[in-house]
Specification:
Blueprint lengths: L13 E6 L8 H14 L3 E6 L35 E5 H6 L12 E3 L1 H9 L3 E4 L1
Parallel strand pairs: 1-2, 1-5, 2-3, 3-4
Length: 129
């Protein structure tokens, strides 16, 4: 009879999700958030980055009543429940839009573009939306 080996440790990949688009008008922001939660549920090493208009995904006080869409910004609070702790926002993108970390719905680490590039270079997989 053939012997079976005990399964070894699961392979963990470093995934980085880069959010560049405004939260409404396309499905990209909402779909990316769902993919992030799925990856985190499978115990992958997940990082999330917000650059360009993607910083608006985290802006406090979003009111989507007039466009008839559900405001999903509060869902970013679930990232902590999924142990997604590496959440970065590009400093230059915040400044260009007149925002600060205090304007965002969750705590983030604000980094300059160069620093983000260094972190991106260490990832196994980088996905953008």
């Amino acid at each position: 009879m053939e012997e079976f080996e005990e399964p070894g440790p699961e392979i963990v990949k470093r995934f980085m999700y880069v959010n560049r688009r405004a939260p409404y008008g396309t499905i990209y922001a909402h779909e990316c958030l769902e993919v992030i939660l799925v990856a985190a549920a499978f115990d992958q090493d997940v990082s999330v980055v917000f650059v360009d208009d993607g910083v608006y995904e985290l802006k406090k006080g979003q009111d989507t009543t007039d466009i008839g869409l559900k405001n999903f910004s509060k869902t970013y609070g679930a990232l902590d429940d999924y142990d997604v702790e590496k959440i970065y926002v590009e400093k230059e993108s915040l400044e260009a839009r007149g925002l600060t970390a205090d304007d965002l719905v969750i705590p983030v680490e604000v980094l300059a573009a160069k620093e983000l590039g260094e972190i991106m270079a260490k990832q196994d997989i980088v996905l953008g939306s």
